[in-house]
Amino acid sequence: ETVLDVLIAEQDKMQELLLGFNLRQHEQLDAQQLHVKRTLESQQLKLEQVLESTLGKWAGTREGVLSLAVTETKKFNDEESSSIVGFNVYPNDEDQAPRRADLHSDSLKTHVDMQKLKREFSHKQAALSNLSLDYGCATHGWHVLEQATARAVQVASKRRLHFDNLAAFVEGQYFRGFMVAVVVFNAAYIGFAMDVTLQAALEEDANAVSRSEDDFATWKRAVRGNSPWLLVAEVLFTVLFVLEICLRLLALEGDFFVGQEAGWNVFDSLLTLSSLSEIALVGFGVDLSFMRVIRITGIV
């Protein structure tokens, strides 16, 4: 009996839920029908106003007034309604017989005006159709581009080497802290090297032994043997930055180029490439060390 009571109670609850659901469905359906009915009525009213204003402007006659007649047919049981739009001509003076020539001239003028209005409406409708088509094509193209970009990012982000431990190490606090320290020391080194180079240049200029091809590049002082440790420090920092880029590339794989820090990764890669170019072109007077100072902005 207890089980039967429980089943009966559950059945009653289900029936109440079904009744409530049906009631909500009927309420929503009634609300939608009322909204559609009001929308149709407002659209019909707007159409009548537009037709009346248009006829009052373009379809006047000399012997009568052209007016709008609307006949509505409603069926309350089926909740359907229809409207019939027609035009009535009310003469100004019933006793006066209109002249056929004037009526023909006025009718012709009215016909020409109506044709002109129809052509203008057709041109505007064609322009709106072209604008809608162009907007639809642009929207579709943008949607296709977004889908292609999302697909490319998804394919590029797929991990293939699965260096998970290396990724955890690269994204860890120790590695990031070490690279921050390297960047700070590199900026301090660049400032100190430029100060040493400037002092050496001023001393040579004061001694009148400077040559016309001398400049303030740190690598040129190192090549001439005045300060060989500058070149060693330059190579050391460059090797550290190259190792950082390689480790991040192996750990992040495709996310290196499409991840959240893709901009900084590409920026660091370009700066590292400039360092390698500076060392490779040491004999051509190329000095790009000032660019590496920008790397310190990545710490922020």
UniProtKB/TrEMBL annotation:
TM region positions: 174-192, 229-250, 270-290
UniProt keyword list: Membrane, Transmembrane, Transmembrane helix
Ion transport domain segment(s): 224-297
Membrane topology, record value: Multi-pass membrane protein
Classification via InterPro entries: Ion_trans_dom, Volt_channel_dom_sf
GO terms, molecular function: monoatomic ion channel activity
Entry's localization field: Membrane
A Pfam short name: Ion_trans
Any Gene Ontology CC annotation: membrane
Domain of life: Eukaryota
Transmembrane helix in keyword set: yes
Protein name: Ion transport domain-containing protein
Organism of origin: Noctiluca scintillans
